[in-house]
Design a protein that fits this description.
There is one protein chain. The chain is built from 10 helices and no strands. It has a domain at about 1-105: Serine Threonine Protein Phosphatase 5, Tetratricopeptide repeat. By secondary structure, it is mainly α. About 80% of the residues lie in helices and about 0% in strands. It starts with a helix and ends in a 6-residue tail after the last helix. It has helices at about 1-20, 30-45, 50-65, 70-85, 90-105, 110-125, 130-145, 155-170, 175-190, 195-215. It is globular, with a radius of gyration of 19 Å. Helix 6 packs parallel to helix 8 and helix 9 (about 175-190) runs antiparallel to helix 10.
Length: about 220
């Protein structure tokens, strides 16, 4: 409840900022409106208002594309992918995420690149496309390591967590244990431990239970 109140308060302030940036005398007003709308879109998504989030993000995307602000455009596309993912429109989500990935790759936006790879892996997981998930992870793993994505411990944890969960769902328990253990270590090393970062530890423990009690399933 408190998180929702904070979210609504933040949305109120972002809306005030949008009004200010809408004034014709404000320097770089269009860029300002775009950035405010992206943040409003993110906030709306997190509050569960997906339609409003979609509207805000699409407005921000259109303005940024017109301005040629590619770095922020990659963020807007990533967030649009997340909205469509939560709507269950996985194909559309993947299209936006792939476009965001290409921009991040072209502009060497390391954090955004890693984050979008994780989001694409999640689309495969939600679609029960476990071979596609592993193919995505294997395709981009070398680039992630080359760019030192391990420094972004939360992104690295989520990458290994999804990869491990994909193997687990496919019945490949030892490979699942391997990647979930890597996710657990990354989560443990995160600078700020949050409940979501403890999840890999829980699933690693589950893997031990499954693999020890069902050795016939080891692959």
């Amino acid at each position: 409840m408190k998180d929702k109140q904070y979210g609504e308060l933040a949305e109120k302030y972002f809306e005030q900022a949008r009004v200010i940036f809408s004034q014709p005398l404000v320097e770089q007003g269009d860029r300002g409106i775009a950035l405010v709308n992206i943040n409003l879109g993110i906030m709306s998504r997190r509050l569960g208002d997906l339609d409003e989030g979609l509207r805000r993000l699409e407005d921000g995307r259109d303005r940024l594309r017109k301005l040629g602000e590619m770095g922020y455009l990659a963020e807007a596309l990533d967030e649009l992918g997340l909205v469509y993912m939560e709507m269950g429109k996985l194909r559309k989500a993947q299209d936006y995420l792939k476009e965001s990935l290409q921009i991040a790759l072209e502009y060497t936006d390391k954090y955004r690149f890693g984050s979008v790879v994780v989001d694409i892996c999640k689309v495969h997981y939600l679609n029960s496309d476990y071979p596609g998930l592993e193919n995505c992870a294997a395709t981009w793993e070398e680039k992630l390591l080359e760019w030192g994505i391990q420094r972004y411990t939360y992104v690295w944890a989520k990458f290994n967590y999804l990869r491990g969960m994909g193997h687990w769902a496919a019945g490949h328990f030892l490979n699942g244990l391997r990647y979930l253990s890597a996710a657990a270590m990354a989560g443990f090393n995160a600078t700020q431990l949050r409940p979501s970062r403890i999840t890999p530890w829980i699933n690693t423990w589950r893997f031990w239970k499954v693999t020890i009690s069902s050795r016939k399933n080891w692959r």
